[in-house]
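FW: tagging you since you asked about this chain on Friday. Here's the raw sequence from the shared folder, copied in full. Didn't touch anything.
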Amino acid sequence: MIFVKHEKDVQPADLSAEHDLKGVELRPLITEKDGARHFAMRLFRLEPGGYTPFHVHGWEHEVFVIEGEGQVIGEKGNQPLEVGAAVYVPAEERHRFQAGESGLAFLCCIPNVP
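HL: got it, structure written out here
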């Protein structure tokens, strides 16, 4: 069944157990709980100067920038991000997202992993 959600109706995830992050809000827009069997769509909002933790995982993911600017920091350096940028992060590559002076918002699609 097709459905529509609005980000304001989705509670932010509790990131209090995460380390090495600053000013990050994560809203799980579409997940397995919604019946999405294969992929999850998440909305990240980073405050100006905010950043996600450096991390690595066994799956690829795709990101699309919808607001602000910043950079993605990977093993081979930094790449600038702006509205309209699409990012591919391969599996097993250590990375972090960092907001610039205006903050950063992006959609992130990942596979549902066991």
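FW: The mean pLDDT is 95.
HL: agreed, and The CA atoms of residues 48 and 103 lie 4 Å apart.
FW: great, closing this out.
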